[in-house]
Structures are given as structure tokens and as C-alpha cells.
Amino acid sequence: MSRKSEIRARAAKLRAQFEAAGAEVVETPILLPAEVLLDLYGEDIRARAYVTSDALRGEQMLRPDFTVPVVQKHMTDGAEPARYTYAGEVFRRQEDDEARANEYVQVGFEVFDRENPAAADAEVFAVIQNALGDMELRAATGDIGILAAAVRGLDTTERRKAALMRHIWRPSRFRALLDRYSGRSKAPPTRQALLDNPEPLVHGFPDIGMRTQREVAERIEALREDAEATPISARQVELIDTLLNVRETLPFALEQIRDLAVDMPAITEAVFRLQERIGALADRGVDVDNLSFEASFGRTSMEYYDGFVFGFSVPGRPDLPSVATGGRYDALTRVLGQGCEIPAVGGVIRPGLLVELGAQL
Amino acid sequence: MSIKLGVPSKGRLMDKTFDWFRARGIELSRTGSEREYAGAVKGVGGVELVLLSAGEIPRELAAGRIHLGVTGTDLVREKLGRWEQQVQEVAPLGFGQADLIIAVPGCWSDVDTLDDLDAAAAAFRQNHGFRMRIATKYHRLVRDYLRENGVADYQLVDSQGATEGTVKNLTSEAVADITSTGETLRANHLKILTDGPILRSQATLWRSRVAVTSGDEKVAMRALLNKLG
């Protein structure tokens, strides 16, 4: 059997397993309208996805993942609750590393269910883990929701919280903002000069472009307010840092985060969700005592995940991508749903890696 | 066969390249009519001159169709993925200096740094319902730079020329372009962000790491490189 048909066979087998776990098979197009993806992911998607075009439909992207088309499908004609599975190629530009595949197969399992988020998280994790069989993989979990709750609970202005939330998936920018807002780093000299200028709109330049002078004035007003704001306390920054550094097995991680919640009551709700999830995972037979939890997990690579996140990687092979990844993406359904939303969680497996690693069927 | 040397086919870049080689005892010249892209080499044996558009030279080097080529650092970095593995820098030529920069309207008193640009982009998207547009022809370089610096809520729009005019024409909010003196930017009421350029570029002689050389060609290459010092 050729490598390609071996991968196909493995993909079909995985999809059948997901079907047996209650999922309905969905097919999605390979060419997706670029606009939707660009709107969702921003310019970065162009670095990751292949763009093509024709004179009639304009820009199209070769499917970089299944999440968007599956969510769209569910939003237009899905019943609730719903479980979906799919298998097919995804395409990713690889301009810096020839060794990385630019075309590979993904098999996924997605759950759209309002009733019990903890149970749905646990279901997806357990179904994916079962499908991976007895391969020796390292599983890691995280929860972007806890960090988001911590940011929302900071004792600072709404504007600063919004700026931090916006960059939660860009750790270095997040750090720079936190340093600025806590007074650890100083504003650049250009900022001070702007604030010291009594008439910043008298600049001698003609008013050009779509961004109006009123928008400029509004931002300067916001910057003046911000300059007056009390710095975020060193204690609160320390709590965020401690939270970001939690890296433990689940029971110990829960204990540490629960301790943090004493000083950060805003995360209490999120801690309860973590606790419920641990219970739900245990109910599904997952060995939670040895499952790792990293508070920063998924922060750099998984922008649309906003709650539970997980990944399975090959120990000792940092050169290989993850064999399986997944997470919760409630916010994405809100963006794509045009007013509707539904809590959603899912995961994908790369059968090509399983075949490469010689995993037994 | 002989070593193929790719040189920009017209304008100041060609003249200055000819001057640079002349100063090292190698006479490059165009032959035939004004409009014919053919050239001759004197002062060293086994070298053939190929006149090309500067923008095509990176690709020709990477394909191994020319052994040496003169073009800007900006074009090599923009057009070649993992450029270090495809070409090797032989010598910077000391002309054609230009910086790839980001510029915004001078009337944006509140924007001087990337940090400001990012914040202004977030507000712009809320107010206008679309991402702030940055006009450029250096898509890869600009995108990588903005990603590394954590700028979000922008989009790149393609502009292959007269980029500085796009803000006034309402087809972009900001530009990313090559500039040497900044004069065109000023004339179009734009100012450069203070974070420093994305890239400092100059005309450079490159050697293809891919082009195959026969025994004769190796000898010719050594003789040429010796002359160039």
C-alpha cells in the first residue's frame, strides 16, 4: 500500500470511530471564501494559507482547517446538540521550513452542546485519546478561560483590560502592555511629547485619509486618561505571572490555581469549571492524576480557542508537529453566527503522523 | 560554458553596477541597439552578462539559471523563502541604499510607534468596520515584521507603484515602502514610524548556491572573484 493510501485508510478508520462515538459525517468545500477567514484571523492567515482567485468569485483560500466551514454549516442547518466528524486534506503554506508538510490529512470530532460544557470538553478529549490508541504520546491541557478571567478581574481601567484581552494570544505584546500599565516600563519619549503638547492637532499637515482628526483627538483623549490611571499593582502582576507559570499535573494545578483565586476572586468561576472538567474527565476514565496542565498552553498557536485546550505530542521529537490538538471555541461561533452562538469544542488528529510513526491500527 | 552574471537591465542601478565593476578592472557594456538586452564583458574570461529586471534576479539566482547577480537586499528577502540557503552575499556594492519603512499620515499626531499603530488599528476597525489597510509590495517582509511585533487588526493591500499616493486616494490608511531620502513620503504628507526601519537595503552582488558550475566555470568564477577582491 502506498503511503498516501495508508493515510487514507487510517483516516477512514478514525472517522468511523468518531461516527461510532455519535458524530454525523460532514463534507466541506476545499475552496473557502477568503473574506471570512481574513476577517476572523487577520492578515496572519495569509502567511499560513494558500490564496488563489478568479475573476468571478474573487479571492479563495485552500482550506487551512475544518473549523470554519463546519461551524458555518452548523449555524445554517444544524440541529442541537450536534456532533460532527470529517476527514480530508488541509493546506498550509510553509515558507520557512521545507520539512513541514504543506498538505496533510486531518480527521476531526466536534461537539456543539449548550447543556454541559465540562462534559463536552471531557468527551472530546476522551474520544480523541481513545482514537490514538496505545501510542506513547505526551498529552497536555490548558485553559485560556482562566487567564481571560484573571485579566477581566484586574483592578484597572476597562480600556486597559480590553487591550490586554486583545493580545492574550500574543504573549510578548501582552507582556509589554502589562509592563507599561504597571509602571515597570516607561512610555516612549514620543508619547510624553504628545501628552505635553497642549495643541496636538495643530501639526501643519493636511488632513488626508479615512482616519479622521476626530478619531485622532479621541485617541489622544484616551491616552491622557490612561496617563492619569493608577498603575496596576505589583501584587496583581505577580499573581498573573504566577498563574501563567502553573505547570503541573491536573490535581496539583487545581490546588495552585485555587490558592491564587483567594487573591484573585475573579477567577473563581473559571476554577470551578476546571474542577468540573477534571471530574468529567475522570468519569470518562481519563487518568487525570497524571495529565499535565499548563496555564500558558495554546497561547501562541491557537488564537480562536478561548477555554479548554489540549494537545498530544511525540515525546523526544520537538521537530514533529502535534499528533492531535483541540479546544473550546465559543467566541468563534459568536463571530461566525451573526447574532447566534453555541458553545463548541473539538479536536483533530493527523493520521499522516500516526502512519509515519508506525502506529498499529 | 561560461559564468552567467545577472545585472539590472536599465537605469541608475545598471549604470552604477557597471561603474562598480569598472573600478575593479571589468568592463561591462550593453551591445547592439539601445533597445536590445544583450551585453559584453571585458577584462575577465568566461563570464557572460545577462541583463534582467532587478525584480527577477532573485528568482533566477534561486533557480540556478545565473551564477551571480546584482539586486537589492529587499528583493532577495521578500522573494526568497530561506534566502540564506539559496544565495550567498558576495559584496555589498555601496549604492542603491534604501530603507523599508512604515509611514502614516502626518496628521496622525497620536501615532509615532508600532505600539501606537496597533492601538490605532484596533480603534479604526471598531469605527470603520474593516481592518486598517497598509499598502505595500513587500508583503512577506511587512507581515513577518508586524507579526513579530504583535500588531493586529491590519490588512495588507497590494500596491506595485505610487504607493505613497494611496492614503490620499483613500485606498489605504498607511504604507510600507522603500525610501532613501524620505522626500516622496514628505511630499505626500506622510511620516515614518520611529521604531526604525523594517530592513536596510542596498544593491548587493549575490552568488547562487544552487547554480551548477563545471570545471571551466569554476576557474572563471575564481578569476572573477579574485578581481573583485
Explain what the structure shows.
The complex is a heterodimer of chains A (361) and B (229). By secondary structure, chain A is α+β, with helices and mostly antiparallel strands. Chain A has 2 domains: 266 residues, BirA Bifunctional Protein, domain 2 (2-Layer Sandwich), CATH 3.30.930; 78 residues, no CATH class. Chain A is built from 15 helices and 12 strands. The longest helix of chain A is centred in the N-terminal third of the chain and has 18 residues. Chain A is globular, with a radius of gyration of 23 Å. The model of chain A has no long low-confidence stretch (mean pLDDT 93). Chain B is 32% helix and 30% strand. Chain B folds into 2 domains: 120 residues, D-Maltodextrin-Binding Protein, domain 2 (3-Layer(aba) Sandwich); 103 residues, Periplasmic binding protein-like II (D-Maltodextrin-Binding Protein, domain 2). In chain B, strands 7, 8, 9, 10, 11 and 12 form a 6-stranded mixed sheet that branches. Chain B has a 5-stranded mixed sheet with strand order 4-1-5-13-6. Chain B has 8 helices and 13 strands. The model of chain B has no long low-confidence stretch (mean pLDDT 93). Classes of the chains: A alpha+beta (361), B alpha/beta (229). At the A-B interface, helix 3, helix 8, helix 9 and helix 10 of A face helix 5, helix 6 and strand 9 of B.
